[in-house]
């Protein structure tokens, strides 16, 4: 560590001690723009034997419990590096040199598990329902699955996952170590949008180191220093993947890609199903080329939003359109004599009982031609409604049409016409 960098850190330590309470907000606003200070603090944390490590950890904890949001985020940006230093020292069996880092991690953990009144926090997360639209999907594009999810959501069967209450910890042991570190990474991921690029780079690098140290892949990555294996838990790896997924789309594609491959490598060796599932899902969703995302401005995960308009064409064939097309076809007249369909075109029956030279029978004198025709029309309509009588009614209609043509031509047959 150079003398100039050491001087920047010492000035920062002394400045905060003499800072009045009224100037705390302005001090926190200007602190994030001091890039030279941030880089110097990273070098202090990476040197466990540095004499400035203990006062730096103490001041970072003072920032965190000050209640100022920007000071809290300033401390959080160093969290991945602090976790790596603690795990590296623990793996090397040199526990005494990590005392101040362990105290800082425990202090942040104990502050986060309680609210302002001192009561234990219970974090809850509702699993999104596929029946409700989001920036990731629309129910209409899923198909029949949306109907099932919609029916379940109407009955209030949405699943809620709870985390907590978490117990207070006075020291980190092999039994509770990753329970605490996993919760700390959860807090870090909750503030990912406020983290600078240097913090995302640190996250990707420490994820790779944790996963490959002590394994043959360490020589491929050319990581020097620690050669002991660092045990990890399944939940801790899932939290690492959450931050890496964000880094992919916020200017750190290459480092995030390397970290993702290393996590998959370690998860396969450990046979952890949860990290493998999440990591492979992230890998499958990535675009083929590297994302050229600006490192300035708003940070977010880029997704493709489906259009809100319906994708079903207005001319799509449905059961309703088929039914309407059938009735429309039945209503069209057919002028062909050979292709006349029964029930489509009703042809009135012509009575031939009152042709000249034919006597009417007893009781039929009072019946007019209109009444007889009306009965025959009704009979033809009744025949048309029953498809089973189609073959029987067709010759009858042709016979009636031939008789009608003979009458129109002026041909008068004597007596009753025989067929």
Cα-atom radius of gyration: 42 Å
Distance between the termini: 121 Å
| Biggest pleated sheet | 2 strands, antiparallel
Main sheet: which strands, in order across? 1-2
Protein name: Family with sequence similarity 126 member A
InterPro entries: Hyccin
Organism: Suricata suricatta
Main location: membrane
Structure description:
The chain is mostly helical and 419 residues long. The protein has a domain at 196-290. It has helices at residues 3-17, 24-31, 35-45, 53-64, 69-76, 79-91, 99-112, 144-154, 177-190, 197-212, 217-221, 234-248, 253-270, 273-285, 319-331, 369-385, 390-408; strands at 123-126, 160-163. A two-stranded antiparallel sheet has the order 1-2. The longest helix is centred in the last third of the chain and has 19 residues, at 390-408.
Short description:
This protein has helices at 3-17, 24-31, 35-45, 53-64, 69-76, 79-91, 99-112, 144-154, 177-190, 197-212, 217-221, 234-248, 253-270, 273-285, 319-331, 369-385, 390-408, and strands spanning 123-126, 160-163.
What are the main properties of this structure?
about 425 residues; mainly alpha; 2 strands; about 55% helix; disordered C terminus; Hyccin; cytoplasm; Family with sequence similarity 126 member A
């Amino acid at each position: 560590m150079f003398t100039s960098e050491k001087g920047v850190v010492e000035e920062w330590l002394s400045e905060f001690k003499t800072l009045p309470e009224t100037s705390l907000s302005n001090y926190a606003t200007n602190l994030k723009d001091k890039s030279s200070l941030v880089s110097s603090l990273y070098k202090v944390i990476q040197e466990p034997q540095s004499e400035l490590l203990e006062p730096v950890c103490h001041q970072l904890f003072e920032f965190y419990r000050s209640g100022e949001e920007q000071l809290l985020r300033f401390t959080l940006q160093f969290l991945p590096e602090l976790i790596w230093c603690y795990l590296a020292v623990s793996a090397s069996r040199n526990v005494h040199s990590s005392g101040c880092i362990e105290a800082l991690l425990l202090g942040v953990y104990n502050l986060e598990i309680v609210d302002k009144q001192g009561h234990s926090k219970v974090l809850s997360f509702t699993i999104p329902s596929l029946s409700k639209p989001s920036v990731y999907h629309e129910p209409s594009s899923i198909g029949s699955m949306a109907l099932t999810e919609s029916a379940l959501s109407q009955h209030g069967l949405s699943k809620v996952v709870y985390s907590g209450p978490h117990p207070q910890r006075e020291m980190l042991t092999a039994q509770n170590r990753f329970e605490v570190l996993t919760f700390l990474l959860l807090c870090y991921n909750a503030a990912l949008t406020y983290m600078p690029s240097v913090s995302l780079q640190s996250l990707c690098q420490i994820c790779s180191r944790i996963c490959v140290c002590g394994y043959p892949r360490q020589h491929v990555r050319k990581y020097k220093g620690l050669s002991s294996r660092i045990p990890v838990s399944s939940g801790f790896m899932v939290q690492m993947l959450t931050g890496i997924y964000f880094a992919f789309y916020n200017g750190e594609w290459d480092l995030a890609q390397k970290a993702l491959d290393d996590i998959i490598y370690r998860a396969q060796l450990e046979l952890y199903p949860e990290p493998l599932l999440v990591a492979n899902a992230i890998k499958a969703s990535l675009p083929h080329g590297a994302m050229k995302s600006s490192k300035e401005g708003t940070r977010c995960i880029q997704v493709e939003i489906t259009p809100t308009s319906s994708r079903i064409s207005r001319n799509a064939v449905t059961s309703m359109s088929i039914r309407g097309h059938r009735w429309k076809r039945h209503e069209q007249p057919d002028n062909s004599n050979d292709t006349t369909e029964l029930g489509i075109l009703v042809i009135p029956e012509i009575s031939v009982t009152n042709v000249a030279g034919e006597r009417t029978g007893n009781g039929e004198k009072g019946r007019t031609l209109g009444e007889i025709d009306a009965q025959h029309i009704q009979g033809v309509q009744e025949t048309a409604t029953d498809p089973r009588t189609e073959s029987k009614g067709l010759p009858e209609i042709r016979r009636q049409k031939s008789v009608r043509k003979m009458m129109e031509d002026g041909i008068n047959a004597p007596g009753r016409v025989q067929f």
